[in-house]
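Sequence in, structure out. Go.
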Amino acid sequence: MVFPKYMLLVAGLAVVVACGGMSATGDPDHWHAKVYRGTEGKVGEQKSVAHTSATKLSEERTRVSVTLPGLIPRGDYAWGVYQGGCTGTIMGAESAYPNIVPDENSRGSFTAMVDANFVPGGDYYVTIFQNGGERSEILGCVPLEQGVGDFSED
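Output:
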């Protein structure tokens, strides 16, 4: 019976449309970013230096995770989420974002519990600083995008 299959397809599409489409963006309590060298985002075929996600847990608390997939082994990278620009006002306390030291395979990660209220539509940037552990020279910075990200590529 062909008719019931089409009815099921139409019903499924109606649910997708009613729920806001199939886009992964738009979730007001989640943000994501792939950070590339510099502040222009991805240029050419370059690989990302960090994958970041943030999830609002309450009005006062947000979980921020960062993964460094290929930086200098045993380097020392400061990082953070800032409001208003790459080095604007840090969200929460600077101590919530300890430096990340990639292992011998050039991988490092950390999940921070940040005491800050991330609001939908906010102007947030994730910044990874150059090796050395100081928050002075930017390695990469991009705006956080609202919604759940896909980190399957680079």
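Check: Helices lie at 2-18. The two ends are 44 Å apart (CA to CA).
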